[in-house]
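Changelog-linked ticket: zinc ion example.
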Amino acid sequence: MNITNGLVASFHYTLKNPAGEVLDSSEGNEPLAYLHGAHNIVPGLEAELEGKTVGDKISAVVTPEGGYGVKHDGLIQEVPRSAFGDQPVEPGMRFNAETDQGPRMVVITAVTDDTVTVDGNHPLAGETLHFDVEITDVREATPQEAEHGHVHAGGHDH
Ligand code: ZN
């Protein structure tokens, strides 16, 4: 069975940046299962997996446009330190913030006495992604999975 829209595929993966550093991996975990054509995974990788089958190993280089998007300067904002009240703020802290585009995960990138810089870009925005993938399973989606647009496995619950 070859991967095409409406099928559920599972794969092991290692994700590296262009410097060869491992950013994420399924090693030691269950393979990642996704519903092909439902945008469960980044579009650049989904396109590379089209037509592949169990046992296929691929290396895919995914541009930021096909991955987590380019970095938008507009998502980097400087806010008054006072907006955080007495809360401790340090670079690297993550929290949900209300933005013009709705709730969004942001990370604090800089702190001064008066200001805090927060970045709402995805942590992998602007990165070229190097995926090594091995496909471990391809199957029909259940009617419910097809209706929901995602896979029911690995503790997914309603
Ligand atoms: Zn569901």
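Closing comment: Example verified and attached. The helical segments are 43-49, 143-148. The radius of gyration is 19 Å.
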